[in-house]
Amino acid sequence: MKSEMRATITRSIARSKKGMAALELAMTCGIIVAMSLVCLDVCFLVVASSVNDRACRDAARAASQQDSAAKAQDAARAALMIHRTQSNLVGQPTLVPELFSYVDNGGDPDIPNPTVTVGTQTTVRMPVPVFLFGVNFGSDSGGNRQSFTFRKVYTFPIVKFNLDLSKVDPE
């Protein structure tokens, strides 16, 4: 009788340990899946930021090679076409007109540092909306995907510009 009772208790404890292991495994898998989804969102944010940074730098460099504001803006737009993305989640880098500035000082050699400033922006939609601690990341309250916008501004010295030597005082 005692041995049967002891065997029943031993089986019950063994079953209890197996059940706890399954519960721990299920909870751990849930946490790992949630962390993986957050990592996926972060990866898309990093890619979008990197694309925008490289596009802005190349657009500013192309604009700095031009001798007029109109040509500089056209060159910046052409440089942005090289950085087109093939994703529905990461948008195309675009030129932000209000951030564009071409300052060649009218060709006056007495005013130093002719520069061109170019600003770009890229939008990214979160692939997986994450609800964490009561806050929605990646979707609004209606369940629509949010988009995040990255902006970058670069200023480069103008390499080619029209220098007006008639303004130089010979003395």
Overview of this protein structure:
This protein is of the alpha+beta class and 171 residues long. It has one domain. The chain has helices spanning 2-64, 69-81; strands at residues 94-95, 101-103, 115-125, 130-132, 135-137, 147-157. The strands form 2 sheets. Strands 1, 2, 3 and 6 form a 4-stranded antiparallel beta sheet that branches. A two-stranded antiparallel sheet has the order 4-5. A hairpin with a 2-residue loop joins β4 (130-132) and β5. It starts with a helix and ends in a 14-residue tail after the last strand. 21% of the residues are buried.
User: Would you tell me the structural class of the helices and strands?
Assistant: alpha+beta
Mean pLDDT: 80
Shape: rod-shaped
- In DSSP terms (H or I, runs of 4 or more residues), the helix count works out at 2
The main β sheet shows up as:
4 strands, antiparallel
User: Which residue ranges are poorly predicted, with pLDDT under 50 across at least 5 consecutive positions?
Assistant: none
Strand content: 15-25%
**Helical amount:** 40-55%
Number of strands: 6
How far the N terminus sits from the C terminus, by CA atoms, comes to: 120 Å
Total of domains: 1
Instruction: Write down the secondary-structure element order.
Output: HHEEEEEE
Indicate the radius of gyration in whole angstroms: 30 Å
